[in-house]
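Hello forum,

I keep getting stuck at the same step: I have a sequence, I want structure tokens, and every attempt I make locally crashes halfway through. Rather than fight my setup again tonight, could one of you with a working pipeline run this one for me? It's a single chain of 215 residues.
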Amino acid sequence: MYESLTTRHAGVALKHGEAVRYPPDVAPFLGVPRAMDLSAATLEALVPKGDHVFLLGPRVTPASGWTVEHLGQALQMVCEKPLPPLEGPEIVPLTTDEHHAQMRELTSLVYPHYFRPRTHVLGRYFGIFEKGRLAAMAGERMGMQTPRELSAICTHPDFLGRGLARRLLVWLSNDVFTRGEKPFLHVDPENVRAVGLYERNGYVTRARLDFWRLR
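Reply #2:
Ran it on my machine without issues. Output:
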């Protein structure tokens, strides 16, 4: 997170001391360069009262009155080479205000903790529609100079089992390669269905990273 916030997304990042974060309406993530203490001044500047942030990797020690909770680990998975093309339904760029509203509606059902009203400013998002409804979506979130994170790969419960998430994963992974970048993603290791999907489609685990919530 820290690398993304200080490179690709430095223009939107909020900073206090050595800590940086995405604006609260963009994403609930905070980055630090290493395990470190966080002062009350830094926390009050970056985390609105009643809100919380997530961190990936280094553990922080917060000032009195703040708590940090270990949520387990996340798998960081990477794709090393383009995937065999997969035919399927049309994939549509999600660029309009109506699209953004539909994205928030979908993510509130299946991806509620990490998608905020302006998360879409972090990268490109794409979807598959059925009869005017956003059935599945995927997009780009964090990234450094060439690595690019795929995120919010999700399907509406009404459209599960049709291979829509796989279609989006393969298409977007290959598109990222065509832009001279390398796709990676993060997933909860307990989400066996998602891990299996990624492994069957060219992704391998690069690292296990500690996942924290600070409030």
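The first helix runs from residue 2 to 6. If your local run keeps crashing, start a new thread with the error log.
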